[in-house]
Amino acid sequence: MGEELEKVKKEAAQIIEDSQKLPRLVVFDLDCTFWPFYCECCYEDEMPYLYPHAMGILQALKDKGIDVAIASRSPTPDIAKTFLDKLGIQSMFVAQEIYSSWTHKTDHFQRIHRKTGVPFSSMLFFDDEDRNIQAITKMGVTSILVHRGVTLGALRQGLKKFAEKSSSSWT
């Protein structure tokens, strides 16, 4: 397990280093993006687990000085926060917006922006729901739809899209 984590972390670090322009903040959804389940289908006493690449990506971002945050519409924020605690990663996030909402996460991002001061154009977002991706993209956030959790491929795609969007806004 530790060897695979180090391999993913090293590859994620290389992807980050190879990127021409980096976001100041990377925001993750939780359910079916960071971990392969819905919190509302779980109990607090269960032991959570992440998608295989999630921890390595998270650690590589932090090592490179890129802040990370959470935007989740989970109706069970207590379970989500307990799981983050059990995984030992709750303190890694500069903002945790975890609450049920009908706004496709626009309120979540307004709060993240207010807490961090990071402009939407300097954020990268990963989520498994197209409606959230569409709504947040309209706010100016580079957004990537994931299908089976956040992966090295999704990170590469996100950083490439972020760099392209950043360079095109200067021309």
UniProtKB/TrEMBL annotation:
One of its GO terms (molecular function) is acid phosphatase activity. It comes from the Eukaryota. InterPro entries: HAD-like_sf, HAD_sf, HAD_SF_ppase_IIIC, MDP-1_euk, MDP_1_eu_arc. Transmembrane segments: none annotated. SUPFAM superfamilies: HAD-like. It holds the Pfam family Acid_PPase. PANTHER family: MAGNESIUM-DEPENDENT PHOSPHATASE 1, MAGNESIUM-DEPENDENT PHOSPHATASE 1 MDP1. This is Magnesium-dependent phosphatase 1-like. It comes from Punica granatum (Pomegranate).
